[in-house]
Each structure stands twice: as structure tokens, then as C-alpha cells.
Amino acid sequence: MNFVSETDVAEQRKTRQEEWERVRKADDPKEAPEAEYDPRCLFDQLQEHKDKKQEEFDEKIKFKNQFRGIDSEEADFLTDMANRANKLAKQKRLDEENEIIKLQNNVVVVSTPSSDPTSSLLARKKNEEKLNQALQSKNKNKKISVRTPQGSNKEEEHDDDVRWEKFT
Fold this sequence. Notes:
Elements: H1 6-23, H2 42-62, H3 72-111, H4 117-139, E1 142-147, E2 153-158, H5 161-167
Antiparallel strand pairs: 1-2
């Protein structure tokens, strides 16, 4: 241990006071506060400092650790749910198209009044066939792009002839 004289201590105090005067604000005291004396050994002081830094770091990354990627089981589940939603939307669209066709057929029957009921029935059948053919040719082999949860696009061919067989 080195001996520290009173003049050295006074010199340090004076330099500290000059430094304090440069950074002091109006509401701070005129005298520089004395450095706090910590009787603990250097190892304990450094260990406490290290622990505080580690806690601050852990606090910063705590929020980041709450999120994780999805595994294959979750991806399969999400794909399944997306497929179900697509099927429901397709079924809804088919139902709406069928209702539209029925309404159009009713309008055709009403707008072509005839004394002969068989001729209106034949006209209605012809109109249905024309409509079905037009819709079939329009919807034949549509390519639908489906986005999977893994991020890749998959194209599927859909042949809509099956739904028209029910109604013709």
C-alpha cells in the first residue's frame, strides 16, 4: 500500500471541485459531493457490477425470447384450417351460383308466357343447358394458386364438371 499525503488528497479534491464547477447545474450544490467509500473488496464490487449488467441484458432480450417459429405439426394444422376455409368458401360460391341459375331460370319462364306448358318447359331446359355449357366452359380446369404456411405456392387444377352433373 502506498502512502497518500494530505496534499495529494487536497489536490484531488481541488481537481474534482473544478470538474464539478464545469458540469454543475444551477440547482446542484456548490460543493462537489464526496465519493462514497465502499468497504467491500474489489472482487465483490466487480461481481455486483457484472450481475447488474447481466440483469439489464436479460431484461432487454426477455421480450425477444417469447416468440418462436412454428413446428411441422402446427404448420400441418394451419394448412388443414386453410383448406377447410377454402372448401367452405367454394361451397358458398357454388350455392350462390346455383341460386342465381335458379332465379334466372324462373325469370326466363315468367318472361316467356305460353299457352302450351310443354313448350315453356322445353324452352326452360334449353336455357338451362346453354347456361350450364357456358359456365362449364368458363370454369373448366381452373388453376388456383394456394399459399402454404411454409411460404411456398402450390398450384392445383380443379375440374368443376362434377358439380354440374348433380344439376343437369
